Amino acid sequence: MKQYLIIVLLFIIGLLLEGIITTVPLVTVLLLVFYAIFRKKWVYPAAIILGIGLDFFAMRQIGISSAFFVLFLFLIIVYEQKFEIATIPFLMFASFFGSFAFLMLIDHKPFFLQAGASSFLTLILYKAMKVTVKESI
């Protein structure tokens, strides 16, 4: 129960920070890291709900972020068959290109700087979550 509370709290904080304060794709990073750690299907409904919430807070057309998040997670699952996705190089690569594509989709500049920042945040979050949250969910 404590693990779910941590996950929900991180999703809410990431949603509010990205939707209101910053343009660094925090929700993309959170979805990627949580799927890499837990590999559970609950990440898809979370992607849809977070995408709708993000579009609402950022005042964009509802559904754009949700569609991107679901497609992004689908591509990660496809690559899961060929690569080990719970490695730092894969997560940083996927985070950079996923964030870059999302930033291009919503037309936020500078693309490279924010995608690089999201890769760095992915590294920090993945290391922190591996230490604090067990893989039992």
Fill in the keyword field for this structure.
137 residues, mainly alpha, 6 helices, 0% strand
The poorly predicted ranges are none
**What value does the average pLDDT take?**
89
Would you tell me the structural class of the helices and strands?
mainly alpha
- What's the N-to-C terminus distance? 9 Å
Can you tell me about this structure?
The chain has 137 residues and is mainly alpha-helical. The chain has one domain (2-132). The chain is built from six helices and no strands. It has helices spanning 2-21, 26-38, 43-58, 64-80, 88-106, 111-132. The protein starts with a helix and ends in a 5-residue tail after the last helix. The model has no long low-confidence stretch (mean pLDDT 89).
Give a quick summary of the entry.
The protein has six helices and no strands. It is about 80% helix and about 0% strand. The chain is mostly helical and about 140 residues long.
Topology:
Layout: H1 2-21, H2 26-38, H3 43-58, H4 64-80, H5 88-106, H6 111-132
